[in-house]
TrEMBL record:
<keyword id="KW-0963">Cytoplasm</keyword>
<keyword id="KW-0808">Transferase</keyword>
<dbReference type="GO" id="GO:0003723">
    <property type="term" value="F:RNA binding"/>
</dbReference>
<dbReference type="GO" id="GO:0052908">
    <property type="term" value="F:16S rRNA (adenine(1518)-N(6)/adenine(1519)-N(6))-dimethyltransferase activity"/>
</dbReference>
<feature type="domain" description="Ribosomal RNA adenine methylase transferase N-terminal">
    <location>
        <begin position="28"/>
        <end position="202"/>
    </location>
</feature>
<feature type="binding site">
    <location>
        <position position="48"/>
    </location>
    <ligand>
        <name>S-adenosyl-L-methionine</name>
    </ligand>
</feature>
<comment type="similarity">
    <text>Belongs to the class I-like SAM-binding methyltransferase superfamily. rRNA adenine N(6)-methyltransferase family. RsmA subfamily.</text>
</comment>
<dbReference type="InterPro" id="IPR020598">
    <property type="entry name" value="rRNA_Ade_methylase_Trfase_N"/>
</dbReference>
<feature type="binding site">
    <location>
        <position position="23"/>
    </location>
    <ligand>
        <name>S-adenosyl-L-methionine</name>
    </ligand>
</feature>
<dbReference type="GO" id="GO:0005829">
    <property type="term" value="C:cytosol"/>
</dbReference>
<keyword id="KW-0489">Methyltransferase</keyword>
<feature type="binding site">
    <location>
        <position position="94"/>
    </location>
    <ligand>
        <name>S-adenosyl-L-methionine</name>
    </ligand>
</feature>
<feature type="binding site">
    <location>
        <position position="69"/>
    </location>
    <ligand>
        <name>S-adenosyl-L-methionine</name>
    </ligand>
</feature>
<dbReference type="InterPro" id="IPR001737">
    <property type="entry name" value="KsgA/Erm"/>
</dbReference>
<dbReference type="Pfam" id="PF00398">
    <property type="entry name" value="RrnaAD"/>
</dbReference>
<dbReference type="InterPro" id="IPR011530">
    <property type="entry name" value="rRNA_adenine_dimethylase"/>
</dbReference>
<comment type="function">
    <text>Specifically dimethylates two adjacent adenosines (A1518 and A1519) in the loop of a conserved hairpin near the 3'-end of 16S rRNA in the 30S particle. May play a critical role in biogenesis of 30S subunits.</text>
</comment>
Length: 279
């Protein structure tokens, strides 16, 4: 597909407000399709299809494709590039405002997969929406900023490990499929990209009695990354009955050295600490 020719034909200019960068290299597309394991029985949700480069490939392989595009100027282009397919539905909408349960009922007859080149400026909210709707999504294969990919896959102890890492890894297994240079896009973004595969889990990686409190503890621990876990919780953790004595006792009971930094704690350690703090 000649992206430059399509842009010229329809007078399309990338909208910086929507983080539009159009993929011209088909190698990452094939990598995404393979990682998602797309076959004829699959229902696929594509977010931010742009000019339809990935959309066409999805239509060739999947049973049903629903493409959600916020940019009104791109809808006529999408309809043109996919005109030969009967298994495509194009929706002009902000995916963050979409009720995915309703979308499933209206367009799919089963659970679905997500395959998308995500807009950079709303990557994290979309990824979290995918995780929150894990009951109906089998797998998501998405292209994101390389930096975000490293955060999604980060392990405890590294600079990339943080709240997003834990929030996603609690309910998913995440791996990097491939990296994509900025030269693969028109116009080139200021950063490189990467394709990640998110295999959703129906049950959390560790059982939690109180997920809301778990994330309060995680957020407090990462509130000031350079501080020890003790001092971070002391300054930022707020809930009825909390005190420094309770924090000290909980850290000791959970077997966590109070001088460690929050970024060194695993999901299991955060869960153990939360369980002790709760009682």
């Amino acid at each position: 597909m000649d992206i430059k020719a399509i842009m010229k034909k329809y007078g399309i200019k990338a909208d910086k407000r929507l983080g539009q960068h159009f993929l011209t290299d088909e190698d990452p597309i094939h990598a995404m399709l393979n990682a998602a394991g797309i076959h004829r029985k699959d229902c696929v949700l594509e977010i931010g299809p742009g000019l339809g480069v990935l959309t066409v490939k999805l239509c060739e392989k999947a049973g049903k494709v629903v493409a959600v595009e916020k940019g009104r100027n791109l809808i006529p282009v999408l309809k043109s590039t996919t005109r030969d397919f009967k298994n495509i539905c194009i929706i002009e909408e902000d995916v963050l405002k979409l009720d995915l349960e309703l979308l499933k009922e209206q367009y799919f007859n089963s659970d679905f997969k997500v395959v998308a080149n995500l807009p950079y400026y709303i990557t994290s909210p979309i990824v979290m929406k995918i995780v929150e709707n894990r009951s109906m999504i089998k797998v998501a294969v998405v292209m994101v900023q390389k930096e975000v990919a490293h955060r999604l896959t980060a392990l405890p102890g590294g600079k990339d490990y943080g709240i997003l890492s834990i929030a996603v890894q609690l309910y998913a297994d995440v791996d990097i499929v491939c990296e994509v240079g900025r030269e693969a896009f028109i116009p080139p973004p200021k950063v490189d990209s990467a394709v990640v595969r998110i295999l959703l889990r129906q049950e959390p990686r560790v059982m939690l009695e109180d997920e809301a409190l778990f994330f309060k503890v995680v957020e407090a621990a990462f509130g000031e990354r350079r501080k020890t876990i003790r001092n971070s919780l002391k300054g930022r953790l707020v809930f009825p009955g909390i005190s420094l004595d309770k924090i000290d006792a909980a850290l000791e009971q959970a077997g966590i050295d109070p001088t460690r930094r929050g970024e060194t704690l695993s999901i299991k350690e955060f869960a153990r600490l939360t369980a002790v703090l709760r009682h």
